[in-house]
Amino acid sequence: MSAAGMNGTCPPGGPEDRAARVALTWLAEPGNRAVWTLVHQAGAPATLDRLLSGDIPDARLRGAVAARSAAGDPRRMAEIVLRRADRLGARLVVPADDEWPRRVADLAAMEMDTGGRINSDIRPPLCFWVRGPWPLGETLERSVAIIGARAATSYGIHVTGELAAGISKSGWTVLSGGAFGIDAAAHRGAISGGGRTVAVLACGIDRPYPAGNTALFDRIADTGLLISEWPIGAEPLRHRFLIRNRVIAAATAGTVVVEAAARSGAAQTMSRVLALDRPAMVVPGPVTSAMSVGCHEILRNNPYARVVTSAGEVLEEIGRIGEYYAETPRGPERRHDHLDEETALVLEALPRNGSVTPEQVAAEARLNLRTVLRRLSLLEIAGLVARTGDGVALAHVSGRNRHDAG
Amino acid sequence: MSAAGMNGTCPPGGPEDRAARVALTWLAEPGNRAVWTLVHQAGAPATLDRLLSGDIPDARLRGAVAARSAAGDPRRMAEIVLRRADRLGARLVVPADDEWPRRVADLAAMEMDTGGRINSDIRPPLCFWVRGPWPLGETLERSVAIIGARAATSYGIHVTGELAAGISKSGWTVLSGGAFGIDAAAHRGAISGGGRTVAVLACGIDRPYPAGNTALFDRIADTGLLISEWPIGAEPLRHRFLIRNRVIAAATAGTVVVEAAARSGAAQTMSRVLALDRPAMVVPGPVTSAMSVGCHEILRNNPYARVVTSAGEVLEEIGRIGEYYAETPRGPERRHDHLDEETALVLEALPRNGSVTPEQVAAEARLNLRTVLRRLSLLEIAGLVARTGDGVALAHVSGRNRHDAG
């Protein structure tokens, strides 16, 4: 199951693999191309041995490893970190675990056309530290990132809250960073919508940054997930936010930027979202607002970035890519909620038993075929409709009558 | 020069041609496909003869002509209208005239995919009534349409004023309708920018509608142009605004929508702009504003519609299509104003004499080549730079030193 190579004495997911991944993340920043490539080829324990022996072709990595090793024995640091995490109620998730999120693997093949250091260190995470009650992979499977400026305006905060609540009510997870402004508004909106929210930190999850959001972080750990690639104790250094951003882009089904200043980090995240072929969505704003300049820049510079103005449009954009994420259907009491009128008409037009063609649905619902296809896509994602050999049919996942959905 | 067929006794542009075009516009609404096709094949006088003889295959047109003829003799009406126009200081412009605007001919080939009546009557104008001191064709050659809602917000009014003033200062004509809201703000902004503005009416230019804009219309007729396809005395009927919109789309180098409600007339105009392969530009706004819903709809429904946030971006979009409209260069005192920093750097990087390659300009200006190419394109449109066999050179249109441009 793991992307890492097999090793007879140190099976992926075993104690040695886990400790080696923690030590490697302590030695070099997550996303490091050379480290990830070695782990992919030889496994984490062998990579750790090799790095500690000084056999490192990459000069920059060799320097970093030497500096970190001088500060402490990486294997000993890993032990300490694992013990402290256990006391904090945090768990380590590695690629061999069932709850490893599958989408981050796409970072293995992502290429960025800029040659800078941050853009070269974009490989998949070696591990995640996780606090919260939900399985990580299942929670991220149906997730949307909402990102934006710390110095958000009341407009941005309001729109973010509405978007996040709508996404959350539709049974999708909201994911964001931990910053003030748009990030915090996204988590609060998702919590108010009754769904899960995930904060991806750029520091140890023992000390989520900024401290001003501590009460919010505690609430996220109770109702959603706090996650980080960095070991317990890691500081929120500036460059780590840029490294972290690749996980926001890769772990979700799509990313929405609500407000961003000119040449902001949001543009960098969006370029990764686009490089990963995920929906890159932008909320426009007043052209007179400095906090919308970055949003409009992204729209002007990326023909594939799309304007979105509501949670419904966000879900439509995600449905557009035609992926099927309903591996973890929610209970029917969630999935039937908040259908818009057209979606309800499409659902009503499906026979209780047997399958029909989308054209038949369109005729019955008196909607045009394009609308019907989009709505069917959303209903399929929601687990309410299934494709059959010759058309579509109601998915009978529970004993409930379809009229519950009206 | 005329699109109309030649006729030995009635040369295009002669008195019979002119009177027949006025009579035809009085008999049938402008844009009528059947009338335009007959005029194109046989000329206006022969078409008028044929329509008045009742030899009309199109049943709808036959009905309209019969109803109008019963209200008065079309030839007599044309005489009256031409005499009244002369007293009002308005002139008739027909395709054979030097000042006929060349771009509206593109309506001859435009096809819309919707089958409605308004969308079928999209053929070129037969004539324009014009009030104002400038040649019509030259004025429209370098023009941008700014359109939007009557019930504009203060945000829309402000942004429109800034856009129109910037476009006007760059030596481009602003064109709009005559309505309250965005239209009026566009004209006011253009006048404040010191340039020409053109109001395209959907009624006779003796009675520009709405009357509340009378002072503005008088100012437009003094400093720019008031134009209409409808004869003196024509009422501003509702459907005429939709017919008029095709001229807004076709007469300009590109169209900007600033504010629009959901499913507004602006969306119809923009679909024509796109059908004509002209830049369709949209100013975004708060997603919480009902007056920006139409703008965001246009962006979501048309992948080729582009976000613009400033006059500079509007001119860049128009420059992007690579057309060269600088047939009527303004005086250098106009053209050097308001260069942005990058454009000024590019201009500074050009030698006083001789030509250089864009790559040399990029090296000298320390800008990337893509930026340099875009700025050179704008400077070329502005008449400040000329292409040479092996590169680009300063255009020496006046004796002034290039440092005036800094």
Automatic annotation (TrEMBL), chains A, B:
SUPFAM superfamilies (UniProt xref): MCP/YpsA-like (SSF102405), Winged helix' DNA-binding domain (SSF46785)
Gene3D superfamilies, alphabetized: 3.40.50.450
Protein name as it appears in the record: DNA processing protein
Organism: Actinoplanes philippinensis
GO BP annotations listed: DNA-mediated transformation
Family under the similarity heading: Belongs to the DprA/Smf family.
Domain of life, source organism: Bacteria
PANTHER family, alphabetized: PROTEIN SMF
Domain Smf/DprA SLOG: 93-318
